[in-house]
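Table S7 (text form). Paired inputs.
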Amino acid sequence: MADAAPRLTRLAEDLLGVPLPLRVRAWDGSEAGPPGAPVLVVRHRRALRRLLWKPGELGLARAWVAGELDVEGDLYAALELLAGFLWERDPDTAPAVHPLRDRRLRDAARELVRLAGPWPPPAPPAEEVRRRSGPLHTRTRDRAAISHHYDVGNDFYRLVLGPSMVYSCAYWDEDTTLEEAQTAKLDLVCRKLGLREGDRLLDVGCGWGSMAIHAARAYGARVVGVTLSGEQAAYARKRIADAGLTDRIEIRVQDYRDVRDGPYDAVSSIGMAEHVGAARYREYADDLYALLKPGGRLLNHQIARRPLRDEGAYEVDEFIDAYVFPDGELAPVGRTAGLLEEAGFEVRDVEAIREHYALTLRRWVVNLEARWAEAVRLVTPGRARIWRLYMAASALSFERNRIGVNQILAVRTPEGGPSGLSLRSRAWTG
């Protein structure tokens, strides 16, 4: 009998205590669940074994990456339903557990084990970061983490990001394209930094060179860009040569902690500080402060999470850590601003632009889906599935205010002296 989907639906509802909001289609062709809802496709019983072995997000992620789980219909709608069902579920609203329910839970778990098929589960997908050891955020471990995420192929990133090759939040206005919005973001950063002809700019985490090229070409800055990704550096150097800007821009494969040729007039750090880590953030702030001349400015563009009542309870997202950004950590914007101040900076402006990142991510997902077959050919099916899921889920997280992104303008203000900003410093918003 083809009855796997009804059984799965009933078991899920028994174990979680609430109706399943998605329709389920199982490997035997059976379906169950609310008509018209997005369909969760369970292509193989191996997905259940993964979930039993690693309950929660990591088990789901492994099944998704392996292609054993999929969504048919609106991916965003499915993730919205799952967010309220699993990740954002209020434990206070869960039904009380009583002895009869305990027995039902035990019976449901036994039936799920039988339905999952032969034990043990398969090995994790090849795209998963293997077990790491040693302290976080050493130079060696950071280099490996950056390579995992960024050295997956420049052609793949160009497919997703578009010609701008900017892998951070764009700055949108009505009726703008992705390329126009990314150029607007780069120009906003340059204006906040007050760049002028001949200024020395350090671009920390320079990516594929887009910020460096814009600062040199539009503002006449002399730029040093540093990245830990060899593939990014090679791509950036070619773009710079093609633009005729090799006399103004130097790209280095170098850890920001090893930069010793200050002082700089300005530092841009766009989408890089998420890799620094909580334990190293004060060191990061100290290093950038030391690299700036008195009066020099830092523009720190960084994703933030919402603060928790108990900050000691913060846990890194298992899917992101295993498949997307190994060792990445998010902090509340207040904590970031406080550490910059502790390092000596004067924080002069904070602009929250989380809605802009949601729009950016949705455009990247459109790019990926429009050229799906090519994306799979450039990387692997699993890698393409990772990027689609993490970008769509991240867009919803920004929209739901679970995470945000902020531009912090900080100045190495001379002791007892002026900041160097005009009385109406927000004139850059135009």
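Next pair, protein 2 of 2.
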Amino acid sequence: MRDEHPVWRDSYGMYHVFRYDDVRAVLADHERFSSDRTRLMGQQPFGQGGITMIDPPEHRHQRRLITAAFTPASIAALEPRIAAIADELLDALPGPDFDLVEHLAYPLPVIVIAELLGIPPGDRDLFRTWSDRLMSLQVPDFTDPSLARRVAEAMAEMNAYLRAHCAERRTRPRDDLLSRLVHAEVDGERLEEEQVVNTASLLLLAGHVTSTVLIGNTVLCLAEAPEAERRVRADTSLVPKALEESMRLRSPFMQAGRVTTQDVELAGETIPANRFVMAWLLSANHDERQFTDPELFDLDRRLTGQLAFGHGVHFCLGAQLGRLEGRIALERLLGRFTELRPAKLAFYESQIFGVREMHVRGSS
């Protein structure tokens, strides 16, 4: 598709963009490629206050409310706590054969984001139920008017849970991100309840899904590239490069949706106004025009601008946190096990590219 149909219209009328430069251009241009889907699909479950589905200037206001929790200094200060959580989880392993996702890759980031938000980390089984329900939705047509209803149904329990915590923070604020959202003001006005709930929902989901998949995918990439694994074990300063290459090769979120606000010419094709555009992050990260031998897991690759965390105004707020969680998890795993071999795998079947279960055999 990159070679022959870099911009392709499917049977639902959606346009798909596959090449690196074109995907990057779509993500960088919020004026012509809007994140606001309501112009096509009506109000969305994440629409009101959901920072992934609004444009500047509203997007800037919303993003500013939560950036304080995600500054480089704030994230760096979390390292001792993340390391302690990782050690606790590994100390509690049932034995050398275990499900890496269940025992480390999932609970580590979900505990971290729950503590940041100020909700009970002990409820993480609930969080996984909700995220699995949402991620399992089959979405062949993003213009389908029933999609908003289906997503809302999948999120109903989670939103009710977060709404109750928001109500408590109004009368009894704490030193947590949820309290700051509840009491924050934009241009002198408080956020509406649904804006707070939708933002908290996005933080809870996005705050763990990417890191969970990143950890599992990187272990899988290393298992499939023995020489790279040997080098990383010999020199753990290569762990960040391994994580970055894993994100390029197995990008957790495969695509990002936008809506055209006017007729746009891209790669020789004209995309009419008010059309849904799917920018394929995974394809862009495998584009031969940008990355030499893109199917190869290469620790020596100069990774200039891999797009797993997006690009432009919607570049992932939690990118630094995800990288830190991934680094700590990989360093701890490599330090505890001289060998770690996947024995049984199960993958997500929709929206997410990565392992959902990963049973491994470890040797100490």
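The chain has a mean pLDDT of 89.
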